[in-house]
Amino acid sequence: MKLSFIGDNDLPGVANDSRLAAQHGFAGIEYNFWGDFSKLTIETVRQMAGIHKEHGVKAAMLGTWGFNHLSQDAAEREQCRNLLDRQIEFAQVLKAEWIVTGCGDIPGEPVGLKIARFVEVFAPQLAKVKDAGLKIAFYAVHSNSFLDSLPAMERMWEVMPDLKLKYDPANWKAHGADYLEIARQYSHKIGYVHIKDHIYKDGHVVSEPPAGMGDIEFPKVLAYLYQAAYDGYLSIEPHGSHWGRGELRRKNILLSQRYIQSMLV
């Protein structure tokens, strides 16, 4: 297993994070985009890649969030397909190992229909990902992804057993699901991992501190990952209004690194 962290997307942020990654020995930097991905240009991506080369660091993953690949609107589906093509191209320029996106959703429809539509939409796209030398994982729980429960994922794996999950234990806990049971049963289906912590009070998240300072049981998560011989990224996600900004963001990244590193060999 190897450590990365989610970087800032603007070029000054890319430079600052590249220096941080190089100084502290991170294996990679992850980048995520929401609706603003449509405004990202190949010229900017090439500049990002140049900054990485200058500092001797690499991209771990390029993610896009919130796009509904299963939309009932044909024009929206076509837009999502074009954006995924751009994601593949940009990830190649960045020399990222992984891309991550959502499965899409058709609200109100049964899971079986959603899976059938997913296979129809993504089969040719998954071939493109493989041909580009990339690996893909799909996020769950939120932002246009019908993988919102363990049964939904199990139904998906019956049809596409090789599909990989982007696993975030804090997101699953906030969703009300047993994140440890997911890791216990299906760590072999996990392709990429996010690391962030939550502190709960009266059932609500009140802080998102560095890993090891909250309620997520990371030693157990890593134990299950080791049992499945997981050898991918553990990507630190500095998140929240306090620990996701400014100097506390930097401390979050480094304190999380120190804690998780103690469990890596």
TL;DR of this structure?
Helices cover 45% and strands 18% of the residues. With 265 residues, the chain is an alpha/beta fold.
Describe this structure in words.
The chain is α/β, with parallel strands linked by helices. Helix content is 45%, strand content 18%. The chain has helices at 11-24, 42-55, 74-94, 111-131, 150-159, 169-174, 179-186, 218-227, 246-261; strands at residues 2-6, 28-33, 59-64, 98-102, 135-139, 165-167, 190-195, 199-201, 204-207, 233-236. The protein is globular, with a radius of gyration of 18 Å.
Topology:
Blueprint: E1 2-6, H1 11-24, E2 28-33, H2 42-55, E3 59-64, H3 74-94, E4 98-102, H4 111-131, E5 135-139, H5 150-159, E6 165-167, H6 169-174, H7 179-186, E7 190-195, E8 199-201, E9 204-207, H8 218-227, E10 233-236, H9 246-261
